[in-house]
Amino acid sequence: MDRRSFLRNSGLFAITTAAGSTFVMACAPSTGNDSANQAAAGPNAKDATFITPFQHIINYADIYVAIQEGYFAEEGLNVDVVGGSGTASSVSQVSANQGLVGKAAAINTCPLIADTGATIITVAQGDQKSQYSVASTPDNPLTHPEQWQGKTIGVISKGGSTELLLDAMSVAVGLDPNKVKKVVTGADVGSLEFLNRGEVDGFITYIGSESAFKQREIELNYLNTDEFAKMPGDSYFVKTADVEKEAEAITGFLRASRKGYQFVEKPENLEKVLSAVGAFNKVEVQDEELAKLKVDAQPVICRSAAGEYLTIDMPAWESAVELMRKSGIMKDTSRPIEDFVTTQFVEQI
């Protein structure tokens, strides 16, 4: 996939100045109600804005909890949360000084840094495991990329992260991703109908829809994309210029986020977690049974093998960058890993 297609399908566009510098921009999303009551911060608290990758959903419960339980206030921060319209909007808004912290996966941030000059850097890794899997029927499971060569696989969006991950899975084992037909099946439970009708041989699903299938007792075989194309998932990033200028605020933000994750993982805190999320999106928690399944899935995705949150898996970042270059997702071949991610903040929290 070329750079122009990646930007267009991500909702971004590039502007090149007369001097030849390129800036990545996007239209600001319409997010509706982006505020909620929070534990009062002190009169000298620093205002900070977090841009979500996509609206207000349970995946960002650590932030909503940190607001509700006063963890940000303890760090001297008054945090506002703006719901984004896609991972690209989070990148573009932080780049345009509309937020201190954003969240996006390596497969989104690394090509933008290397190939378009986006001046951002990842400071903490939220997802330690991919949210995405290739779903198929239990009686005809897809367990290896070679099984979908010449077949049709559903992706959540054309040209988005899931198509890029699917291509990377093929490239990782020496197969041609162009020999796989991709069609858009979406991100909700309706994607299953494409499989049931025989229109696809499998489809990419994410942790939220997996929870919905589980609630409905629908059995599917899931092949996590990490099995063949390990890419660090949604991670916290900031502007490169803020690494020094806003170091204290960034460290405090991440410390509060980690406390939020630790709060979320405790079953006895479920009602408070749902309350925190519901303050931003009541619809997300209306089905309490489904919401509980989504909350339960967060530690599975976000807790590292060592049992901690926000740790950066540097070997995974290094292998991901190499695979993105090999698969053509990223054109650059020389930028060092330090341009994409830093461990200096998680080492302080």
UniProtKB/TrEMBL annotation:
Keywords: Iron, Metal-binding, Pyridoxal phosphate, Signal, Thiamine biosynthesis, Transferase. It catalyses: N(6)-(pyridoxal phosphate)-L-lysyl-[4-amino-5-hydroxymethyl-2-methylpyrimidine phosphate synthase] + L-histidyl-[4-amino-5-hydroxymethyl-2-methylpyrimidine phosphate synthase] + 2 Fe(3+) + 4 H2O = L-lysyl-[4-amino-5-hydroxymethyl-2-methylpyrimidine phosphate synthase] + (2S)-2-amino-5-hydroxy-4-oxopentanoyl-[4-amino-5-hydroxymethyl-2-methylpyrimidine phosphate synthase] + 4-amino-2-methyl-5-(phosphooxymethyl)pyrimidine + 3-oxopropanoate + 2 Fe(2+) + 2 H(+). It comes from the Bacteria. Pathway: Cofactor biosynthesis; thiamine diphosphate biosynthesis. The keyword Lyase does not apply. Residues 59-264 form the SsuA/THI5-like domain. One of its GO terms (biological process) is proteolysis. The keyword Transcription regulation does not apply. GO terms for molecular function: aspartic-type endopeptidase activity; metal ion binding; transferase activity. Residues 1-26 form the signal peptide. Coiled coil: none annotated. Belongs to the NMT1/THI5 family. Homodimer. Responsible for the formation of the pyrimidine heterocycle in the thiamine biosynthesis pathway. Catalyzes the formation of hydroxymethylpyrimidine phosphate (HMP-P) from histidine and pyridoxal phosphate (PLP). The protein uses PLP and the active site histidine to form HMP-P, generating an inactive enzyme. The enzyme can only undergo a single turnover, which suggests it is a suicide enzyme. This is Thiamine pyrimidine synthase.
